[in-house]
Structures are given as structure tokens and as C-alpha cells.
Design goal:
The protein folds into 2 domains: 120 residues, Response regulator (Rossmann fold); 95 residues, Orthogonal Bundle (Arc Repressor Mutant, subunit A). A 5-stranded parallel sheet has the order 2-1-3-4-5, sandwiched between helices. Strands 6-7-8-9 form a 4-stranded antiparallel sheet, covered by helices on one side. It has 223 residues and is an alpha/beta fold. Helices cover 41% and strands 21% of the residues.
Amino acid sequence: MRILIIEDDLEAADAMSRGLLDAGFETQIAGDGEAGLEAARKGGFDVLVVDRMIPKMDGVKVVEAIRRDGDQTPVLFLSALGEVGDRVAGLKAGGDDYLVKPYAFAELIARVEALSRRRETGSVSTSLKVGDLEMDLLGRSVHRAGQEIDLQPREFQLLEFLMRHAGQSVTRTMLLEKVWEYHFDPQTNVIDVHISRLRGKIDKGFPRAMLQTVRGAGYRLEA
């Protein structure tokens, strides 16, 4: 799997590249927007990791140009700009995900892996299945081993995210951003409360617990 890193901070880019190589990815680094666009247009990448603030051509314009070319390679924006407007601009330009600096490297890896899987599947599915747990995205229903499970809207969103990342450790930051749309830690136990409620609904009464707590990392849904 090949990752293009478009980042003008060469020290940060080298560190990211080494970490991705250790995780089994191939990498290429472009030090400015023009070089990044040229490399992206040559193709062959599974995910593009693009810094927002880069010289010659900023990251948003690079991605806009790539999308105009019809290239749908998944894009993960990296930026120290964490305001809602900055994230919206990146996503509207064609970005698929947005990670604010500083970030945990394990989270970067998880997001790159999720984007690469999205590229592999290609089509949009209307249902999710993990083991004997099934979710109908159109009918907004959930069943485990054929038994219907009644979920509140936020519980449904939380479970959907966990199912889309089944087998992976999902951090609290990822849940806050993707499920609650918080880009800061509200310093509450909102995640713990919802995880506890969800666990009680999808695991209680079944022979095996699917929703696991990963000490020091977050949570994981196991098939």
C-alpha cells in the first residue's frame, strides 16, 4: 500500500514516513504543493496525507485540483488549523478526513487504514455486519443473532462508527470528533456513559461480549 505525504516540514515528514514504513506502508514525500500535485497525478497511491499549510500551492488547492482531474484517491488532511471553518474548507475541497496537529501516531495509522479500506470496497454499502451483529443503515435497525436491538440515535451513530472500524482500537478523540462532532475534550464522561449503555444492549444476554475496552487506547468491536 502506497502513501503520498505532502508536507513541507521535512523532519515531520521523515518521522511520519518512518512510522508508516514500520506499519507496512510504502511512502513517498513531496515537500510543497506543486511537487505534491505532480506526484499525485502520476498515480499509484492508495491514500494521500496532505498538510494544509504548504508552500507554492496550499493543500486545499492541491486537493481541489486532484478532484477536478477525477482522481478519487482518499485524502487525509493534517493541519494545526483546528477551527470548524478550516475543517469544513478541507472537506469541501474533497478531503475525506481531517486530523488536527498534534496527533497520536496510532490514530494517524488507524485513519489511513480506514481510508485505504474505503478505497478497496469502492461502493457504498447500505448494511454492516460484524459477526452476528447486523446493521441496516437505510432501515435504521440493528439485530444480533436475529434479535432486534432498540438503539437511541446517538447509540446508533456510535455503533455504526465502531462497526465500520471493527477489529481496530478506536480512540476517544476519534469518537468525540466523528460521533459527537466535538473537536475538543469536553471533560465529561459522555463517552463512558454511551459505551456502557451500548454494551448493555448489544452484549447483555449473549454468550460473548463484542464491545471491548482497550486499556490506554479506547475501544474495539470484535467479531
